[in-house]
């Protein structure tokens, strides 16, 4: 790996293309290096993972809304169009709108993969726009499943490398600002575009996808699911413009009125971004991890610890027997999903699902009482309003522990941790102390996810919405992804069983 130094430059310094981060990202995207077998295997896993959580969410309101928007747009004349999760595979739409609808479906339940470092990310968000463009242009450009895998590997590499080097949330910028460039670059790899075109697309994608973190603060709205999909849609459009010869603000990161100077650390700030050398394999996807539970990733390990404590100490589910529960954890967990956020909504039983998903006090309480976690029932209004849950919930707080913060930010996967230590003080004066570093499903966890787990996750989440034959058809096709022909790429979707979507109320808008 090499380290690229990034800082603000005055206009009169005339920073050369080679010194610009966007140019380096474009070089990475055009590097023809072959993919390692374990990377190919993991790309297939994540395509299955994305489809699993999309199937679970296809009747949820934000997904219905986004799908109705997408299907209101006809196929553009430049290709065959792209498919939309849930709809008939023969009904296609323009690729940017397919990226939008499928991106919302993938993101709605907060249930797919994650990478956390200086910044946090869900690199699986790269898959919908890359697959949409591949389906749209498969016939005219002869694109194959191998091209899709290469594009996805680039998207993961760039988003994860940016997340390792540049913090966005520290400056209250939403994490999808790393997704726009990575998705644009991934599409560039898919299509075999030249470095200059990808460079311009990266710049445009970044410029149009920077937004504040208010979408993940306080009363969290349905925009949380739409934000990554919007970045993917913007990436598709940015690539289209760049292919037509349109240019972007330069230098986009380093300019004196650019992203670093005004949205991140300011004119004096600098960042170190790790990137593969020329000819070095793109392996960043292997640093990411999926979710066993539908909740913010920092909650995954805490759910597993709560389940363990539920079985070991069944009496602690009674709030009358507990004086306090303190989660000693990382800065990020404390201030983003913990009591350090100072968001009263995190303790509000009337809060939205999106807000409860970002409340570790709520999540830990429910997992502790139930000894389980479910993507639907654990968030239901009935569950949140249970009196004994509310009473115990109010006793759960978080504090930052410097050692857990250090481990959270470590780039050494062997010590990187997302959990912490729990101290439960009992009403009788006793105390229960335990800790967990990583979730059970993490590569270093008690039960690391493998292919069989991804397949099981898809079958479990899709069985309510897809016919058995459709489930098996998709799984067979997805597991053959690297060998798919252009004609087969259109099958990377699923159609809901008859009647599943009939009961959903489709909203109307402008389109």
Automatic annotation (TrEMBL):
Could you list this entry's UniProt keywords, alphabetically sorted.
Lyase
Signal peptide region = none
User: Which reaction is catalysed here?
Assistant: (2S,3S)-2-methylcitrate = 2-methyl-cis-aconitate + H2O
Name the SUPFAM superfamilies on file.
Answer: 2-methylcitrate dehydratase PrpD
EC number(s): the record gives 4.2.1.79
The source's superkingdom equals Bacteria
Record domain MmgE/PrpD C-terminal: where: 293-480
Q: Where is the MmgE/PrpD N-terminal domain?
A: 21-271
Q: What class of enzyme is it?
A: lyase
Q: Name one GO molecular function term.
A: 2-methylcitrate dehydratase activity
Family note:
Belongs to the PrpD family.
Cite the record's note on assembly: Monomer.
The name this protein carries in UniProt is 2-methylcitrate dehydratase
